[in-house]
Specification:
By secondary structure, the protein is α/β, with parallel strands linked by helices. Helix content is 48%, strand content 13%. It contains eleven helices and six strands.
Length: 230
């Protein structure tokens, strides 16, 4: 971005009042401008391709919104676009998943608008931004693992010896989705062609990785991540 140009921003949120408020606040900044809005994942992908903004400010708690896949798609197709996640959740595993998917910033909604401005300034300098509360949740080593100032985190930052720091494999994510969809171990075993014993073992492994102790919390986690919807 040239120094005399405004930072172009796309808002992704299904709450129109929220979008109207953010648009007004951003457009009141001399060096920032909202150029578009999206209400769901498919629209976010489409509009990011059409407008190629500098920054996408995305509500990652939209019900039924496939957060991880959408972030991955946008970051892979448009690596220069910075994605800032807006969220109400400070769960470490949730933040880690989004960072791995490609977000450059993570801001909790409890913060003021000035925190979002700060996040944009940081990610536009090719750095990763975590708001104060998430820094205390996510190990400091994650931030120091930035890969070459590219604005993304190195893959090895999330492969520590602590099981809760490890991310889910594609097969584990599929098992998690089926669990969240209400499928029994026997049904899951039939769908993905593995034994019931293996399904149960994978479920325990998933819960261990995420630091979750109940199926109810596991379902909530899947909903937050956009793996399944209510």
């Amino acid at each position: 971005m040239l120094s005399n140009e405004k930072t172009s921003i796309i808002l992704v949120d299904n709450n129109r009042i929220m979008c109207d408020g953010l648009r007004a606040l951003f457009n009141n900044q001399s060096d920032m401008e909202v150029v578009g809005e999206a209400r769901d994942s498919s629209e976010a992908i489409k509009i990011s391709h059409e407008l190629k903004p500098d920054v996408i400010v995305m509500d990652v708690n939209i019900s039924g919104f496939n957060n991880i896949d959408s972030v991955k798609h946008i970051s892979q197709e448009h690596p220069d676009v910075k994605i800032i996640a807006l969220s109400t959740y400070s769960m470490k595993s949730f933040i880690s998943e989004l960072l791995r998917a490609g977000v450059s910033g993570y801001v909790l909604k409890e913060h003021t608008f000035s925190e979002l401005i700060k996040a944009i300034e940081v990610v536009m300098a090719n750095e990763v931004y975590l708001c104060p509360k998430t820094i205390s949740v996510v190990v400091g080593d994650y931030v120091r693992c930035r890969s070459g100032g590219s604005g993304s985190l190195d893959q090895n930052c999330f492969g520590g010896s602590n099981p809760s720091d490890e991310l889910l494999t594609d097969r584990e994510r599929k098992v998690l989705k089926l669990i969240a969809d209400g499928k029994s171990s026997k049904e899951i075993a039939s769908i993905i062609e593995m034994s019931v014993k293996t399904v149960d073992a994978r479920r325990r492994r998933i819960m261990q990785k995420l630091g979750i102790e109940s199926i109810a919390e596991l379902v909530k986690y899947a909903i937050r991540l956009g793996i399944t919807s209510i």
